[in-house]
Amino acid sequence: MTEPESGLFLVVTIKPRKDRLAEAEAQLQSMRRQTLTEPGCVFMHLVQPRDDPDNWVMLEMFRSQAAWDEHMQQPYNTEGNRILEDLLREPSDLRLMDER
Prior knowledge:
By secondary structure, the chain is α+β, with helices and mostly antiparallel strands. It has one domain: Alpha-Beta Plaits, CATH 3.30.70.100. It has three helices and four strands. It has helices at 21-35, 65-72, 75-84, and strands at 8-14, 41-47, 56-62, 93-98. A four-stranded antiparallel sheet has the order 2-3-1-4, covered by helices on one side. β2 (41-47) and β3 (56-62) form a beta hairpin. The radius of gyration is 14 Å and the shape is globular.
């Protein structure tokens, strides 16, 4: 008998362009709303660190690696990430984490 797969946590540091903050936030919130409808998404929050106001962080949890892999293939996600390229100062830093 195999052990059930534990959830997958993600911390994504996002560096929006200062001259396109509203556009970047609107795009991220649109992607977030759609992601929250996926059965594999447990939570997804866009937050702003108090000690780093120029950057944002997306905190995410998916039920499994497979659920996240499926999420990454969704058209609104692939297209949304393409749109974000012009709205960010540099590519986002994605960290995948497992629960201990």
